[in-house]
Amino acid sequence: MSFTHFRMSFIHFCLFYLFFMLFCNKCLREFILLDSIISKISSNYKIKNNLSELDEAKLKYSLSIILYDLTKIVILIITFLLINKFSNFIYAFIPLMLLRPFTGGIHFKTYLGCLLFSILFFLGAIYSNSTFSLDYTHLTIILLFSSVLTIALAPLPSKNRPVYSNKELFKFKIITGLILLLHILFFIFYPNNSYIIQYIWVLLFHSIQLSFTKGGLLYEKFYQRKK
């Protein structure tokens, strides 16, 4: 068996395993030992620092966010290394990490749901870039449309985060606008740069998922009013 065939077989196995584990999200967390690691760290810290139950719960939440994000990044890196798209992944990952903290977006209740969405998001943005060879005019239209949509919808913070004041939300919008403006200027001066072209596709996908998030929030408000 050649290395290429072996790699493809391994990728198929990994994808099968992920979708199999979709039906048992708790099993996946236990498999990578996240729950046990978080519990052990928080218990030890509680004993040493005499934490209250509330403080321990806050510590567990903070640790879960950090460890879940780290493991997701590692899994994403391995996935795109296996399919020879690592450089494309880095170009897609950087702008999303710049925008996401200030714009918000879709949030999932389960670790695996978030992981699978992240994989599909990056696959969609990367393969759209490599599949559709667009000219300067079409790229400009997508860039401007996605930028306007993003600045109009953002920020959409997670319900799990603290409630932000209007001043803080406005600050997030200003930072988002600056990030978008810098990338527009980058595109004007370097329209053929690999990073900026990949950024345009990432921004398009990101603006679309912001639209779905906003739609979900509006539906929830409408449903609550009907009650």
Could you name the key traits of this structure?
227 residues, mainly alpha, 0% strand, globular
Concise account of the structure shown:
The protein is mostly helical and 227 residues long. It contains nine helices and no strands.
Explain what this protein looks like in three dimensions:
It is a single chain. By secondary structure, the protein is an all-alpha fold. It has a domain at about 85-225. It contains nine helices and no strands. The longest helix is centred in the last third of the chain and has 33 residues, at about 195-225. It starts with a helix and ends with a helix. The mean pLDDT is about 80.
Lay out the secondary structure.
Layout lengths: L2 H19 L3 H7 L2 H16 L3 H30 L3 H18 L7 H21 L4 H18 L12 H24 L4 H33 L1
Helix pairs in contact: 3-4, 4-6, 5-8, 5-9, 6-9, 7-8, 7-9
What's the total count of β strands?
0
Low-confidence stretches: none
Q: C-alpha Rg, in Å?
A: 20 Å
Backbone shape: globular
Q: Kindly state the mean pLDDT as a whole number?
A: 81
Going by helix content, strand content and strand pairing, the class is mainly alpha
Instruction: Estimate what percentage of residues fall within beta strands.
Output: under 5%
